[in-house]
Amino acid sequence: xxxxxxxxxxxxxxxxxxxxxxxxxxxxxxxxxxxxxxxxxxxxxxxxxxxxxxxxxxxxxxxxxxxxxxxxxxxxxxxxxxxxxxxxxxxxxxxxxxxxxxxxxxxxxxxxxxxxxxxxxxxxxxxxxxxxxxxxxxxxxxxxxxxxxxxxxxxxxxxxxxxxxxxxxxxxxxxxxxxxxxxxxxxxxxxxxxxxxxxxxxxxxxxxxxxxxxxxxxxxxxxxxxxxxxxxxxxxxxxxxxxxxxxxxxxxxxxxxxxxxxxxxxxxxxxxxxxxxxxxxxxxxxxxxxxxxxxxxxxxxxxxxxxxxxxxxxxxxxxxxxxxxxxxxxxxxxxxxxxxxxxxxxxxxxxxxxxxxxxxxxxxxxxxxxxxxxxxxxxxxxxxxxxxxxxxxxxxxxxxxxxxxxxxxxxxxxxxxxxxxxxxxxxxxxxxxxxxxxxxxxxxxxxxxxxxxxxxxxxxxxxxxxxxxxxxxxxxxxxxxxxxxxxxxxxxxxxxxxxxxxxxxxxxxxxxxxxxxxxxxxxxxxxxxxxxxxxxxxxxxxxxxxxxxxxxxxxxxxxxxxxxxxxxxxxxxxxxxxxxxxxxxxxxxxxxxxxxxxxxxxxxxxxxxxxxxxxxxxxxxxxxxxxxxxxxxxxxxxxxxxxxxxxxxxxxxxxxx
Length: 657
Prior knowledge:
This protein is mainly β. Among the domains are: 10-100 and 332-353, Pnp Oxidase, Chain A (Roll); 376-467, CATH 2.40.50.230; 473-510, no CATH class. It has three helices and 31 strands. It has helices at 117-125, 158-168, 277-293; strands at residues 10-13, 22-31, 37-43, 58-64, 70-86, 89-97, 107-116, 136-137, 147-157, 172-177, 182-187, 201-203, 218-225, 228-234, 252-255, 261-269, 296-302, 312-316, 326-338, 350-360, 380-385, 401-404, 421-422, 442-447, 455-461, 478-482, 494-498, 505-509, 608-612, 615-619, 624-627. The radius of gyration is 49 Å and the shape is rod-shaped.
């Protein structure tokens, strides 16, 4: 007769068909916030089953409960092995995990922006690679995680990434099983848990007394306490509110008093990676509750077939009254088996045992964090990106966007990353240095404490697309700061230093305007410290304007030549004095006019002579000589001639009147 599972307390169902695989034994391990693992020993009439027929396929184990109904164990076959013959039949072993386990097979480097942890977890679990197998129930969460501006999965498996995010938010999970599916139930407190039907209260029956325990009993119970800290404090730094780190504006703490927690011990951690005290308080509370959950542990044994991790039960009839309370099951290790399949596979002996761990319901619980945050070891490089059509893309803080080389889902635009701060050589309150990397540049990126969620641009590097300003090594003695006119290029400002021996130079170019402000003294020296003449040449293509607010003094040690090709105008508001150490010559090719509002005084030590053609007037210390072919003295009024000595009038003809 063909072996069958009919009329047996445990059956297994697989895509291979009814009774192709026959249940023999299963070891089941479950825990809050952990993947379950079912290890099944199976029998079959076939030894030719291909492992590919079952790997990645669903499998269900149905266990009959004490008072009717069934408990299901559903999962995905992750390993399937042929073990040879056992009791005259081909023996197989199957390893079954939740669909969430499939996430351990994939790793990635990618960025999520402006999403909550729940949105990220659902996006990762909903990837087409997992075929919709990962079912999530988040309806029992008491708190709603805040959005994260920037969240990076960096060189970690999808499972490690999801686990890390959930643990950071104080969220854990357990699994709800049905005949054809299982669901990951997210939880953050006791409100997410309930008792399984028929298992709300379990009596205590001490098996050590030699009496056979009735069904659905707790047969052993141990309670242990452990010293833990009583306070957990977190602190954080946010560059948009830098004063908060000084005035403890972001310092938060959580305190839980319990019998096994010593008030003397406190834990403190930094950085908390939050921007608001409220978010920090939630995070500190979750970490404190994780410590609190380790302060008490109850270990027990039961024959109750329906007890599972994530379930609640109330203990009754325990000799210690303080133990007759409600507990949350945090982990189970269950094993059950049926007898070998004889003729027709009729029902034989059935074995069941379950060891469990629990905490009192009054005892806050969060599982400990075990998923490690990835660390970026050393700096990386990235390409500056921004909005299409722009050459520089920044915000009010001088931050930029970058495209990391490792990100597979490339955007190469302003959505590629969060705003990343840029290290400057000096950064004061409204003063310092500011050089913004432009789109297309390759920049060096470091990460605060190696955290991929906290990038920081620390510099720029050249590459084959963005080459150096001068050919190298031909110009290896040249250092420069050269900009590029934006938008469109084609021009630049530059401050250049040439250090080649004998050809040292400082070169300054302004592509358009050059403005210089000196609020006190300004000294310019050319030459003086070398034997070179120290020449200075100034060439101005168009106008020059010089405005001196007070005095101006010009000293020329040798000659000075001023040439004005057109007009020259000099205005002096008050007095003007000109002193010439030797000769002074003024040559005017056209007319010269001197207009004096009051007096002109011309004084010479030897003589003053005015000449026009053959006529002249010469003034000497002792006489004045007028020479001309004709001299006319005309007056509209009186003419007076007075001599202290002799007055002589000579001429070929002298007329008076």
